[in-house]
Write a structure and sequence with these properties.
The protein has 693 residues and is an alpha/beta fold. It contains 23 helices and 17 strands. The strands form 3 sheets. An 8-stranded parallel beta barrel has the order 10-11-12-13-14-15-16-17, surrounded by 4 helices. Strands 1, 3, 4, 5, 6, 7 and 9 form a 7-stranded mixed β-sheet that branches. A two-stranded antiparallel sheet has the order 2-8.
């Protein structure tokens, strides 16, 4: 074969592809993607051949030794080659994952398939042929060696379909998108049954699999394997080591980034159940000893293993204090606080904000675990977009890279679909090491809304300006859980008759003030935010008529939905606070009205989720068990029923008689014609009119 440049190379319905003989599983999966993409774009299933002697227009193959193809892991190149008077496009790589990336680069760059096409409902454009310039191309080395997603708190993915654990149908688009984003590593779900397809499919598709920090080596949890035994390595080392040995044996032939760690059962410090470890020195010595034991066990079975240790929570504190010793070739993983800031996580009401990055004296390899979505029962964004500007994410990640934490980047991706904007930003960061957040936004908006205007970019900018700043730090911005977990805590505290005591679980937000002031603090924060959300909703709605239908749906799903969740949460919390104030004044009918209005406002959040469940997304949000808007609605319903007991009981007719019944009827009515009690909704609506609220 000889090299020659021509003016253009054409792809059309007759294009023939050649794939390697006996293709590996990752290459087979990638070929199925390219085949589907070719059919979507050009309208026909492409012809494929095997074997080096077969003629083809596009050739997927492994690079030969003398070929000047990039030599870092997972690299690929495009070469235009003249063979028998015809030009062929050869996409070559030295390893499986490099070939997968080359095939997907062809799909994205030349067939026009967006990395986020599945989650954004963004199919490629149909055409009859595609002309390519015949310019050779070498892939560049990504800024981060191991880069991927932790598909965590994935309740939407779990509840989307009927089968549990989630099947191939759910996981395949997750892993495909990760590969299209240049990711090579995944934690496929959280504490899912070991017989599920998730880990096997990730490996099949070529991804490196890694583990949750509470499940070292991906081993079975001790108390599941040995119910009734004491989960103490000090007392039962051989039982722990048996589980580790089994995990190593099962995964030794796969691409694994091994997580070495030792925490207690249920993702808590092991000393919480073992008081013998009563000093930092004892705790650090135990963790160091276990990590070295796990490391030795892996090295005995796996040549050149890739290992990591999560410096998460208390382990980071022990490491920084010098109580934990870790070999230099183990990647030390630092974590943000769940809100994107590279400081220690808030633990209930304690928020030390200890910097969580390697210092100049920290040797060896370093990486980070980062959240663009989080679940913490306080103020995190689980269903809604990241509440801070994307420039904040950029600054934190670029700062982490500059501090030397660039061997590993694991991003908490949640349920994928609500977070495609920030996941796409991180895609550029882990590939290139830096990003212009403004340029990324413009490009993202152009991809997502081809019939839209530049004004949509400003709507995305405005989103972060409208979120509630609830504390003194730049990352103290409220996500969707802010409106629900605190609200349910307040209702529970109130109905349990504890209003004379402050609610300690809310000190993280309000400080140590009394309960009525805590309720008012949340009410005021939310009430003050309502005008901003209404101000943002109006231009979103004004954009919709000018968009083509697919773009209109996309704007509803990926921005309007998030604004409506914030708006309904703010309005609901405002009404809850007013209900409590009326209750304290002894105005039970008015408190009942406000509680009903709170319920109706929160129901708007549920309606917004339901509206986004069109087409293939049917039932996507039905397993909202974490933010749990349905539970908040039920809490408001319980509250208003309880309030109706205060003065309208036992016949549930007295408020109707007092406020609504015409004066001409009050003293001459017959009970058999007036004693059919109004429903809670009917009564609340009529009383709201009477009170003028």
């Amino acid at each position: 074969m000889e090299r020659r440049l021509t003016l253009a190379f054409s792809i059309d319905r007759k294009t023939i592809y050649r794939i390697p003989n006996n293709p590996t599983s990752p290459v087979r999966h990638a070929w199925e993607m390219v085949k589907r993409d070719h059919e979507q774009v050009l309208g026909t299933v492409p012809t494929s051949v095997l074997g080096e002697e077969e003629h083809a227009d596009v050739v997927f193959r492994y690079a030969v030794p003398e070929e000047r193809c990039p030599d870092w892991p997972e690299a690929f190149c495009f070469r235009f080659i003249m063979d028998g008077g015809r030009t062929e496009l050869h996409i070559a790589a030295k390893d499986d994952l490099g070939l997968v990336y080359g095939m997907l680069e062809y799909s994205g760059k030349h067939l026009g398939v967006d990395p986020l096409w599945f989650w954004a409902d963004l199919p490629p454009k149909r055409c009859s042929h595609i002309e390519l310039p015949t310019n050779d191309y070498d892939s560049f080395e990504p800024a981060v060696r191991f880069r991927g997603w932790f598909v965590n708190d994935e309740v939407c993915l779990i509840g989307w379909k009927e089968d549990y654990p989630p099947t191939r149908e759910v996981w395949q688009p997750v892993f495909e998108t990760l590969l299209r984003c240049g990711g090579n590593m995944v934690i496929p779900g959280t504490d899912l049954p070991k017989h599920g397809i998730h880990a096997d499919l990730a490996a099949e598709m070529g991804l490196w699999v890694t583990h949750h920090h509470a499940e070292p080596l991906g081993a079975e949890m001790f108390l599941r394997a040995y119910p009734g035994k004491k989960a103490s390595y000090q007392e039962n080392p051989e039982l722990f080591e048996t589980l580790w040995e089994e995990a190593i044996e099962k995964q030794k032939d796969r691409n694994i980034v091994w997580v070495l760690s030792f925490r207690g059962q249920g993702d808590e410090p092991f000393w919480a159940k073992d008081p013998a470890f009563d000093t930092p020195q004892k705790r650090g010595e135990m963790i160091s000893r276990v990590v070295r034991k796990q490391y030795e066990m892996i090295r005995g079975k796996v040549p050149d293993p890739k290992c990591s240790v999560a410096l998460y929570g208390e382990i980071a504190e022990l490491y920084k204090a010098g109580h934990i010793s870790i070999p230099d070739d183990i990647i030390k993983i630092w974590a943000d606080n769940g809100y994107g800031k590279m400081v220690s996580r808030r633990n209930n009401n304690e928020n030390l904000r200890i910097p969580s990055l390697p210092g100049p004296k920290d040797k060896g390899k370093h990486g980070i675990y980062y959240h663009v979505t989080f679940h913490d029962l306080q103020a995190s964004n689980h269903l809604a977009l990241f509440p801070s500007p994307t420039s904040f994410i950029r600054d934190e990640l670029e700062g982490a890279f500059q501090a030397g934490a660039k061997d590993y980047l694991l991003v908490n991706s949640g349920n994928i679909r609500p977070h495609i904007y920030t996941l796409d930003l991180v895609r550029e960061l882990w590939l290139g090491g830096e990003v212009d957040a403004e340029e990324h936004l413009r490009t993202f908006v152009n991809r997502m809304f081809p019939t839209g205007s530049v004004e949509i970019a400003e709507l995305y900018r405005d989103y972060a300006r409208k979120t509630i700043l609830y504390g003194p730090n730049e990352d103290d911005r409220a996500g969707d859980e802010f409106y629900h977990h605190p609200a349910r805590r307040i209702v529970g505290h109130w109905l349990q008759g504890r209003s004379d005591q402050p609610l300690g679980a809310l000190y993280w937000a309000t400080g140590e003030i009394n309960f009525p002031d805590q309720v008012e603090w949340f009410r005021r924060k939310c009430a003050d935010a309502v005008p901003g959300w209404l101000e943002l909703l109006e231009p979103i709605e004004s954009q919709l008529p000018g968009l083509a239908e697919p773009d209109r749906l996309r704007l509803k799903d990926h921005l309007q939905l998030h604004v409506e969740m914030h708006l309904s949460g703010c309005e609901g919390f405002d009404k809850l606070g007013k209900s409590y104030s009326a209750y304290r004044m002894g105005n039970f009918p008015l408190a009942f009205v406000y509680a009903s209005q709170a319920m109706w406002k929160y129901e708007k959040g549920l309606a917004a989720l339901k509206q986004a469940e069109h087409g293939k997304w049917s039932h996507f949000f039905r397993a909202d068990w974490l933010t749990n808007i349905s539970s908040t609605v039920q809490n408001m319903d319980t509250l208003r029923r309880w309030l109706r007991m205060h003065g309208d009981s036992p016949d549930f007719f007295l408020w109707y008689k007092e406020f609504i019944m015409p004066e001409t009827e009050k003293y001459i009515y017959l009970e058999n014609t007036h004693r059919n009690p109004l429903s809670d909704d009917e009564l609340a609506q009529k009383l709201a009119d009477w009170f003028g609220v």
